[in-house]
Design brief:
By secondary structure, the protein is mainly beta. It has no helices and eleven strands. Strands 2, 4, 5, 6, 9, 10 and 11 form a seven-stranded mixed beta sheet that branches.
Amino acid sequence: QVQLVESGGGSVQSGGSLRLSCVASGYTYSNYSMAWFRQAPGKEREGVAAINSDGRTTYAASVKGRFSISKDGAESPLYLLMNNLIPEDTANYSCARTPALLAPSLSPRSYWQWGQGTQVTVSS
């Protein structure tokens, strides 16, 4: 059974940094699309960053220039490096995976495997 497990969340002050990790167990796709999503209380799930196995990436406008998604091959974890964090970044962050899409996608409907998430809290 395929599982996605996130780690690396925590509490930081504004301007701080965190690096989230997502490890997949079970079947490994050689060609994949993966993404990070976040959901704050009372808000809809939001796509943050996505990456395809060919290296193409896409970011939400709210995080562009501050966050960086990476994955070094099919067997490596998925990472999200978050710099210059602000209180508005506070949310539960989860990773998602699917066989390779035509382009990296920030739409939750594009993905069918999901992790449980890790909480990120940014204080002012």
